[in-house]
Amino acid sequence: MSDYEMMDKEEIYSKVLRAGRRTYFFDVRATKAGDYYLTITESKKFTNDDGSFHYKKHKIYLYKEDFSEFKEILAEMTDYIINEKGQEVISERHQKDFKREDDFVAQEAKTPEDTKSIDNFTDISFDDI
Asked: CA-CA distances (angstroms) from residue 43 to 19, 40, 83?
């Protein structure tokens, strides 16, 4: 492999942002002509039922000729979101004490009697009342 091919594979400058299950990679790379461009990669971890995990990745290539407009629109969109909804994260999923819905179901059915009463439940028609 030539020196250029090795350089093309390497990041020239990189930063990582870890955000829960997501990780963002910001990498400066070189074009064949020797100019620089930016790649932004989102990597998200998914856990399978058996405990194993895998990652899904999405990548954006951003070239210098688009930097100015990209930066303006990104700033406009982030400012809009903050102005409309504030800094606080609304989603329960992002709270430190968040528990998945299936955790609550497991907690609700604590004893076999509880499970049995749920299984014996019959649908009631409001016409019967």
From this structure: 10, 10, 28
Q: Going from the first residue of the chain to its last (129 residues), give the mean pLDDT of each consecutive group of 10, the final group possibly shorter.
A: 52 92 94 94 90 91 97 97 90 62 54 50 49
pTM of the model: 0.59
State residue 115's pLDDT score: 47
Buried b (16+ CB within 10 A) or exposed e, 67-98: eeeeeeeeeeeeeeeeeeeeeeeeeeeeeeee
Residue 118's pLDDT is 47
- Domains in the chain, ordered, with CATH? 3-120 (3.10.450.700)
Task: Name the amino acid, one letter, at 66.
Answer: D
How far is the C-alpha of 9 from the C-alpha of 53, rounded, in Å?
26
CB 37 within 8 A of CB 29: yes
φ/ψ (deg, to 5) at 106: -65, -35
